[in-house]
Design brief:
By secondary structure, the protein is α/β, with parallel strands linked by helices. The protein has 2 domains: about 170 residues, Rossmann fold, CATH 3.40.50.1970; about 170 residues, Dehydroquinate synthase-like, alpha domain (Up-down Bundle), CATH 1.20.1090. Helices cover about 45% and strands about 20% of the residues. The strands form 3 sheets. Strands 1-2-9-6-5-3-4 form a 7-stranded mixed β-sheet, with helices on both faces. It has a two-stranded antiparallel sheet with strand order 7-8. Helix 1 crosses helix 2, helix 5 packs parallel to helix 6 and helix 6 packs across helix 8. The longest helix is centred in the middle third of the chain and has 18 residues. The protein binds nicotinamide-adenine-dinucleotide. Nicotinamide-adenine-dinucleotide binds next to helix 2, helix 4, helix 5, strand 8 and helix 6.
């Protein structure tokens, strides 16, 4: 892995920097000091990440002069809930963290979402930083300030917008990821390639991505930063990030969440690309190329659920508004657009997308 460090500035209010490179966890104290100044830190990490990286992080923070406490919780989406959030909040209170202190989210998207939410509501909002350890959190969730927990009624239904004070993305962490967790992040990054960047898409055409990861992450973050700068609160252009999500969410629901989000989005992307071709909505066909790239990266491209099952599940989605639904349509690889469609047409769109 290259030693070169890349930084990307996210111009929101207040702005923050995403730093991408090798060996950053061992240097996190010195890197965060100029941003955070004097304060106390609470590092939140799950039961898988803590044994791998917590010591490195706390040692570096302590050598930079910080007083550090650590808050651990069980790994997995099933624990991204009110009970775990409540545990983190009680911990912050028991440790007497003040308004000027900071939460450090060390982990994947679940950690960033949940520790970020805890920071956003503890004392009506304290700072947090993200140290993403999965590819998904590196390329997507660590940037943009969306935090959340799942409720019984659905995923990500409670949360706040709170931008991190800094993001340090140590590419070495990705070496310990289980292959299916790595693949989830690859799906999101390939999605970014389809949305905006054909070069990024092509970077996934390799037997070993290791040397390409810093560039992949930097390209994804640069794109996400641009979108977030334009639409911080997710009312417009940021929704184009949802390529593949209408069908993807429906597949997750129909599968009772046995399928991970990235895997479902991969299938959803192929469905939309195929539908765009069949319905004459795109200037260049892209479904076969997208499907081949996803397969090469150990991702699924088809589902056993029918168009009517998927439409029924999609129409109970929280993002639905009135009689129409917005879908993201791939125009060609590297360019997509939003299209409003009638809810009555959704089943036919899915049917077109499911045909071979
Ligand atoms: P995750 O945080 O649960 O991590 C996946 C698994 O990998 C977990 O078991 C974790 O313990 C383990 N893990 C993490 N880092 C590791 C490492 N370096 N080595 C070995 N194991 C490691 O899940 P995720 O896939 O990172 O993120 C999914 C979550 O992100 C979902 O809850 C989703 O809603 C959320 N998300 C949020 C946003 C956003 O903008 N906030 C965007 C996309 C997804």
């Amino acid at each position: 892995m290259s030693n070169c460090v890349n930084t990307i500035r996210v111009h929101v209010d207040p702005p923050y920097t995403v730093t991408i490179g090798s060996g950053l966890l061992a240097r996190c104290g010195e890197l965060l000091r100029p941003v955070l100044g004097e304060c106390r830190l609470c590092v939140a990490a799950d039961s898988n990440v803590a044994p791998l990286y917590l010591d490195t992080v706390t040692e570096s923070l302590r050598s930079a002069g910080y007083t550090v406490s650590t808050c651990l919780y069980p790994a997995g989406e099933a624990h991204k809930n009110l009970e775990t959030l409540s545990g983190i909040l009680e911990f912050l209170a028991a440790e007497h963290l003040t308004r000027s202190d900071c939460v450090v989210a060390l982990g994947g998207g679940v950690c960033g979402d949940m520790a970020g939410f805890a920071a956003g509501c503890y004392l009506r909002g304290i700072r947090y930083v993200q140290l993403p350890t999965t590819l998904l959190s590196a390329v997507d969730s660590s940037v943009g300030g969306k935090t959340a927990i799942d409720l019984k009624a659905g995923k990500n239904l409670a949360g706040v917008f709170l931008q991190p004070a800094a993001v340090l993305c140590d590419t070495d962490c990705l070496r310990t990821l289980p292959p299916e967790v790595f693949a989830d992040g690859a799906a999101e990054a390939i999605k970014t390639g389809v949305l905006s960047d054909e070069t990024l898409f092509s970077l996934f055409d390799a037997d070993d991505l290791t040397d390409r990861l810093p560039e992949i992450i930097a390209r994804c973050i640069a794109f996400k930063a641009k979108v977030v700068e334009e639409d911080e609160l997710d009312n417009g252009v940021r929704r184009t990030l949802n390529l593949g999500h209408t069908a993807g969410h429906a597949i997750e629901k129909c599968a009772d969440f046995r399928l991970t989000h990235g895997h479902a989005v991969a299938i959803g992307m192929v469905i939309m690309a195929r539908a765009a071709e069949k319905l004459g909505w795109c200037t260049e066909p892209s479904a076969d190329r997208i499907a081949a790239m996803l397969r090469r990266n150990r991702l699924p491209v088809s589902t056993e659920f029918s168009a009517s099952e998927l439409a029924a599940a999609a129409l109970s989605d929280k993002k639905r508004r009135g009689d129409s639904i917005s879908v993201v349509v791939p125009d060609r690889i590297g360019s997509c657009y939003m299209k409003k469609v009638s809810v009555n047409d959704l089943e036919a769109i899915f049917r077109a997308g499911l045909e071979g």
